[in-house]
Design brief:
With about 110 residues, the chain is mainly α. The protein folds into two domains: about 1-60; about 65-110. The chain is built from six helices and no strands. Helix 4 packs antiparallel against helix 5 (about 85-95) and helix 5 crosses helix 6 (about 100-110). The radius of gyration is 18 Å and the shape is elongated. About 15% of the residues are buried.
Length: about 110
């Protein structure tokens, strides 16, 4: 459930831009369509790239399989220097805020 919430939150800017794009088309503000389309494609590209990157890390056995994340995985990633992946795994596991995830990763590194 937490992972689904994180995905929904990451798609909010894309949905907002899609609504703005629709509104611009309805109101016939064609001059603004090209920059909005460019931004929308850029954000979609970031989401797609991130998914491919995680799949690559899973194939390399660096990141845990979807739905099988444990605190041991978070600890292993943090201690091996993969802070971003550790934060992502922690967020997937707990659904906490990124700020709390960063604090927890720093605590894990400090304790070991």
């Amino acid at each position: 459930m937490n992972a689904l919430l994180l995905k929904a939150k990451s798609l909010i800017p894309v949905a907002i831009l899609a609504l703005v794009l629709y509104w611009l088309a309805v109101e016939k503000h064609y001059g603004m369509l090209i920059p909005i389309i460019a931004i929308l494609l850029f954000l979609i590209g970031i989401v797609v790239w991130d998914r491919f990157d995680i799949r690559k890390k899973r194939r390399q056995n660096l990141y845990p399989e979807k739905g099988h994340t444990t605190m041991e995985d978070v600890k292993r990633l943090a201690l091996s220097g993969h802070d971003e992946l550790a934060m992502r795994a922690y967020l997937e596991l707990t659904g906490d805020t990124p700020h709390l995830a960063k604090k927890e990763i720093n605590r894990i590194k400090k304790d070991n």
